Structures are given as structure tokens and as C-alpha cells.
Prior knowledge:
Receptor-associated Protein, mainly alpha, 3 domains
Amino acid sequence: MRTQELLSYLLIVGAFIAAGWLVMSSGGSKENSEDAGHEPGWEKLPNVFRFSWGFVAFFEDSVGALLANIMPARANRFSDLAVISALPLTGERVLAASFAFGLCGIFAGAIAGAAVYVAEPAVAAWLAPVLCLAFFAMGWFWPTQNLAHYAELRQERITRELPFAIDLISGAMRSGLDFGAAMRYYVSLKSGGPLEEEFGRVLSDVTLGRPFADALNDMAKRIQLKAFTAFVGVVSYGMEIGAPIAQTLKMHGADLRRERFNLAERKAARVPAVMILPLVVFIMPAVFIIVLTPLIMRLKGAM
């Protein structure tokens, strides 16, 4: 009877949590659905944030702000990752997402512990806390890992697109265009990548009256790539002294292509080391089982 009551309580609590999640994720939180669902860049959010947008916003000003005060370094790190990813996220919102999914992880661990309790009550005494802790850790780190992965992918895509963009801009400048017109020509190609979006944002800032050097420096702070910081330095120095930068950009693009090729070589060189873990964990035990099982069975038969 106690087991049935325990499962009933867990199911009721789970139903309330699921209902609240669905209601607040649909926009029924402190923000209405129109504001929460149409912020700039909202459509590019990873699914873990899109699915829980309203639910996480509910905790942002309370739990998220509290966790940001307790862990300011992590909050600043998540804010930087959000800037790199060009996503409408803050450190408080990411921490609130970690808290929300951590709670869901605890509940999932409680359900798993209850299932173990039905089968083996003695085992559940020590296994249930372990399951709750493990599921909490998975829920806590899931949003942050998604954000870090998204930021890394965006930086890698910008790194791949940058040499071609520099070659195109320098070629347009050698044809007689100035740097601003060459950048507008690149944006007009509509490649659809993150580099085009960032260049378009720079052009919008310049149209509003900002100097090119300041807009490019802000772009470098958003992207946080050494290759692009060097590109901004070349352009800013050329604009400052009035020197032609087309040939310099051409050489810089060639250097970036060589650097990208060297990076690909380094990644290829790490493949054997990466393959060691799956080889040891998955392949070698299977080989030992296939080889040693007949020998063990023959030995047992002889004994």
C-alpha cells in the first residue's frame, strides 16, 4: 500500500510540474507570448531554451539573479557565450535554465528511485539519492553545454567563412570600391552565414553615424576570434593612416587559409588519440569475450 501511495504522489507532482511547464513555456509567465516569442534571434535558440522559454523566464529575476550573485564568474561566462552566439540570453536566464532542468532531473531521479523501490526496497535506500544527484547534474549542465556548443559552432563557421570574405572584399577594393562599398557588396551576396549577419550589423551601425573602426571593434568583441581581431587591426590601421589596404587584406586572407589548413591537420592528428577510448571501452571487451569464452568453457568442461 505504501508503494502505491508513493507512486501516486510522484505521478501527481509530476503532472503538476508538466502542466506548469507547458503553461509557462507557452508564454504564460511574466512576459506575454508575443514579447517572449519574438525577441531578435529567438528563432535561432537551441531547442532546450526554446522549449522552456517561458518557464525559464519565470525563474530569471528570482532564482537566476540569486545564482548570478552567488556565481558571478559563471554568469559572466554565460553572458559572453550568449554574445558570441548572438542569442537573446543573459547569464541569469542561463542559470535559471540550469536550475529548472536540475529540478526536473531531481524529479526524474525520484521516479527512477521509486521504480527501484518497487523491485528492490533495500537497493533503493542508497540508489535513489545517487540517481537524483546524477539526474540533477545532467539537467544542470544540459543548457550550459548546449550554449557552449552553439557558440563554438558559430565561431567555427565564421572562421571558415572569413578567408573567402576577406578575399572578396580585397578583390572588390582592387576593382575600385572603398572598404564600405566592398563590405556592402559582400553582404548583398546573401550567403546567409553568421559573418554576413555581423557585417550587416556593422553597416547598420555605420549608417547610424558610428565610425567604421568603432563598429568593427564592437564586432570583434562580439565574435571573440583572434583571426578577426587581426583583420580589424589591419583595417583600422589602414583607415587611420590613409594607406591602401587591399593588398594587405589579400595577404591576410592567404595567412588565414594556411592557418585553417594547419588547424585541420592538428584535428586529424588527434583522431588516433580520440579513438583510443571507444576502442578500449567497446571493441576490446568484445574481442576478449569472443576469444576467451570458448577457452573458459573448455576449461570448465575439462575440470
